Every structure is written in structure tokens, then in C-alpha cells.
């Protein structure tokens, strides 16, 4: 039987922007090897696999082309977008996802903005890992550790945008990914970032929702704000609206379906 699969540009205000994710709608759970094969076939930074529960919520897992990950923002946004777009959830209904990072929820405003409720990932100061500054090729102001990732602050937005890191060297840093960030020079945004994750098969992730679970509390404390607008300065680019609420971070963005098909295997 064919399995629906949908490709969505997440955190995007127009097609071919933001971060593309595949969303696979499964009637029942499939084995890990099959999901890993599908993720490699899709060859996107994340493929999401949704399995419905009797209460209307869904089990949700995320795979890169190389590994399964514990938390992913853009593919969660894409999953919620698909459920509402296909009428599998009512427009005013909250999407509820059971994941390896606990229960995650998504709501949608009348104008189509999707808001995710994710766990905050505060960071702590650390010594600069050996080889990190050399891999990035830019002076480092500070490095902080957060859950699976390292946060690197640099002096200017221009440095963030100009980064041409050595992915081979970055892959030697024993973390899921490295986020590089600076205060924005554009008054429309509070901070900018880029995210590199060669250790999990994604050299540069276009827009990384989970990274903003760390970036939001970091910049919120520095800027004295709880609500901010961030820009991830990848080639595709994407806007992430963030709000720090206690030990949670709200992530806001839009989804656009660009491909709708089915798996025949």
C-alpha cells in the first residue's frame, strides 16, 4: 500500500526558502531500518515519521540521512502543517506529538503562523574545544555548551554570514552541531545564526528550530527580552520568532507545501 509523503518548506514565507522537511504519514509504526532508508532516499536534513494514536495525538520521530535525532523544530512545524492542511486535525485543534524529547505541541493562528512549544536548552560556559576556532576560521568570543550542541558567539553579523567552515574539521567536534551567532545589524531582527552539523550528516542546516531553544535564552538574557525575532543566515534563509517562557521556548514560523506524493515501497 502506498504511504503518503509530503515535502514542506518550514520557517518559510515563500517557496524554496526556509528548511525543507519530508513528512511521512504512517498508519502504524515501521522499523528503524526502513525509516533510515527513507530518510536517506529523501536526502533532506530531516524526514519526520508520524503515527496516529487513538486520542488524536501522534508519535513523531526524526531522521537525518545519517542518524535519528532527539529534537527537531522545522520537521515538527512541517508535521503540524501537514496535519492541518490535510484535515487530519481541525484548524483550531492543537497538534500533540510524543517524541524522544517528551510531549511537544503546536498551535496555528488564523493567519497561518504556527507556534511550537519546545523545551528550553540553556547553555553553560566552556573552554573552546580544540580545533573549533580553526574549523570555523573566525575569531571566537565565547563558546557555550547546550544539550547536544555547542554555541559559538562571534563579534559581528558579517562574520556569521561570511563563514566558510571546514566540515571535515567540524566533524571531529563531538557534538550534534555547532551554532554560530551574533547580534543582528538589521533592526528587523535581534540576532542571527548559522548551524553546522556534519557529525549527523548535515553540513549546514538551513533553519534549525531546536538550536533556537538554546539561542533564545542566551540572547534573551543578554538583550533583556523574552520575545525576539531571529534570522538564520543560510543560503535559503529563514525567520524564527521566539519567546522564552520559563523552561519552555515558543518557536513561530510558517510552512509551505512544495511536494505531495507517495512512497510505493
Question: Topology, please?
Answer:
Blueprint: E1 3-10, E2 19-25, H1 32-42, E3 46-52, E4 58-63, E5 68-69, H2 74-85, E6 95-99, E7 102-108, E8 114-119, E9 124-126, H3 132-136, E10 142-146, E11 149-153, H4 157-162, H5 167-170, E12 177-183, E13 191-197, E14 202-205, H6 212-223, E15 227-232, E16 238-245, E17 248-253, E18 255-263
Parallel strand pairs: 2-3, 4-6, 11-12, 13-15
Antiparallel strand pairs: 1-2, 1-18, 3-4, 4-5, 6-7, 7-8, 8-17, 9-10, 10-11, 12-13, 13-14, 15-16, 16-17
Describe what you observe in this structure.
The protein has helices at 32-42, 74-85, 132-136, 157-162, 167-170, 212-223; strands at 3-10, 19-25, 46-52, 58-63, 68-69, 95-99, 102-108, 114-119, 124-126, 142-146, 149-153, 177-183, 191-197, 202-205, 227-232, 238-245, 248-253, 255-263. It has 265 residues and is an alpha+beta fold. The chain has two domains: 3-119 and 251-263, Diaminopimelate Epimerase, Chain A, domain 1, CATH 3.10.310.10; 124-246, Diaminopimelate Epimerase, Chain A, domain 1 (Roll), CATH 3.10.310. The protein has an 18-stranded mixed sheet that branches. Strand 1 and strand 2 form a beta hairpin. The radius of gyration is 18 Å and the shape is globular.
Amino acid at each position: 500500500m502506498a504511504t503518503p509523503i509530503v515535502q514542506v518548506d518550514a520557517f518559510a514565507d515563500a517557496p524554496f526558502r526556509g528548511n525543507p522537511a519530508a513528512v511521512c504519514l504512517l498508519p502504524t509504526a515501521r522499523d528503524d531500518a526502513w525509516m533510515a532508508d527513507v530518510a536517506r532516499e529523501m536526502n533532506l536534513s530531516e524526514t519526520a515519521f508520524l503515527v496516529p494514536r487513538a486520542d488524536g495525538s501522534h508519535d513523531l520521530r526524526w531522521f537525518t540521512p545519517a542518524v535519528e535525532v532527539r529534537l527537531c523544530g522545522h520537521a515538527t512545524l512541517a508535521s503540524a502543517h501537514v496535519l492541518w492542511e490535510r484535515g487530519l486535525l481541525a484548524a483550531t485543534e492543537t497538534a500533540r506529538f510524543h517524541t524522544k524529547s517528551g510531549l511537544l505541541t503546536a498551535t496555528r493562528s488564523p493567519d497561518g503562523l504556527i507556534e511550537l512549544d519546545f523545551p528550553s536548552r540553556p547553555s553553560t560556559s566552556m573552554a573552546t574545544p580544540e580545533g573549533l576556532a580553526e574549523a570555523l576560521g573566525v575569531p571566537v568570543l565565547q563558546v557555550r555548551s547546550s544539550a547536544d550542541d555547542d554555541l559559538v558567539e562571534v563579534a559581528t553579523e558579517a562574520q556569521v554570514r561570511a563563514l566558510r567552515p571546514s566540515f571535515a574539521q567540524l566533524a571531529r567536534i563531538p557534538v550534534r552541531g555547532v551554532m554560530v551567532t551574533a547580534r543582528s545589524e538589521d533592526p528587523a531582527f535581534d540576532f542571527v545564526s548559522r548551524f553546522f552539523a556534519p557529525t549527523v550528516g548535515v553540513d549546514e542546516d538551513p533553519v534549525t528550530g531546536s538550536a533556537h531553544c538554546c539561542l533564545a535564552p542566551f540572547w534573551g538574557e543578554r538583550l533583556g527580552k523574552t520575545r525576539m525575532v531571529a534570522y538564520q543566515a543560510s543560503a535559503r534563509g529563514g525567520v524564527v520568532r521566539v519567546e522564552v517562557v520559563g523552561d519552555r521556548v515558543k518557536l513561530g514560523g510558517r510552512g509551505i507545501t512544495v511536494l505531495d506524493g507517495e512512497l510505493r515501497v
